[in-house]
Amino acid sequence: MLEINNIVYRCCVLLFCHLQEYNATVEFLWAPLLVESNSDDPVNHRLSERIIRPDSVLKHSSQWEHADILIFNSYLWWRQGPVKLLWSSEENGNCEELDGLGAMELAMGAWADWVASKVIPQKKRVFFVTTSPTHFWSQEWEPGSEGNCYNQMRPITLEGYWGSGSDLPTMRMVDKVLSGLGSKVSVINITQLSEYRKDGHPSIYRKFWETLSPQQLANPASYSDCIHWCLPGVPDVWNELIFHFL
Ligand SMILES: *[C@@H]1O[C@H](CO)[C@@H](O)[C@H](O)[C@H]1NC(C)=O
Ligand SMILES: *[C@@H]1O[C@H](CO)[C@@H](O)[C@H](O)[C@H]1NC(C)=O
């Protein structure tokens, strides 16, 4: 479902919150690769080697299938090199390996099969949120510069700007999988609108998991978070889009 973003940090560190006035519960489930994987622990998932069960969405779907509205995304965790595959028919053998895109396509396929077979549109709404862009290389919007999102205070104004963090082959694959699901899924396409927002990341203004070294502290750009987003901020716009669809 949602990759880490600030909605989660703020509202749902407890992994859910109940909104009494609306008799509604908002839950967050950490399942970065959609299918079962060795990255499923919300805290300990920074592993050098990723292993997925490409045909097993079941472990997670049992935790989300009760919801009336489901909002999924998956992207960044696939962008870190090859992924090992452990099919459910094999217990230990995991020698097969695929690049992130190929592995994501398998996982999206398993997820799409779940949606196709289990979702009754009158009873459940399913959304898929597209790639959330990163802003690590200022040379992409300002040729010749050497920074990242640190100290960026204005959006990019170049119409149609597209950074290298938003992988087009991945987008095309996601397009294809989602269009195969027809009206069972609504696409929340946040990528282009968020691409402009190099100013929207927390950069150094967040709590980091690891202790920062004096060298890092002396060079703020070196530890800037150019992945997640500040709140209030860009994710509020994503929420407006979802609200519009409901
Ligand atoms: C709140 O929602 C639950 C689950 O849908 C339902 O069983 C319960 O009756 C609702 N409570 C009120 C006060 O509407
Ligand atoms: C989202 O929008 C981008 C252009 O802004 C487009 O290239 C992409 O295909 C769209 N993705 C989906 C899943 O609709």
UniProtKB/TrEMBL annotation:
Any one GO MF annotation of this record: O-acetyltransferase activity
Domain Trichome birefringence-like C-terminal residues, every copy: 17-244
Recorded GO CC terms: Golgi apparatus
InterPro entries assigned: TBL (IPR029962), TBL_C (IPR026057)
Family: Belongs to the PC-esterase family. TBL subfamily.
Name of the protein described by the UniProt record: Trichome birefringence-like C-terminal domain-containing protein
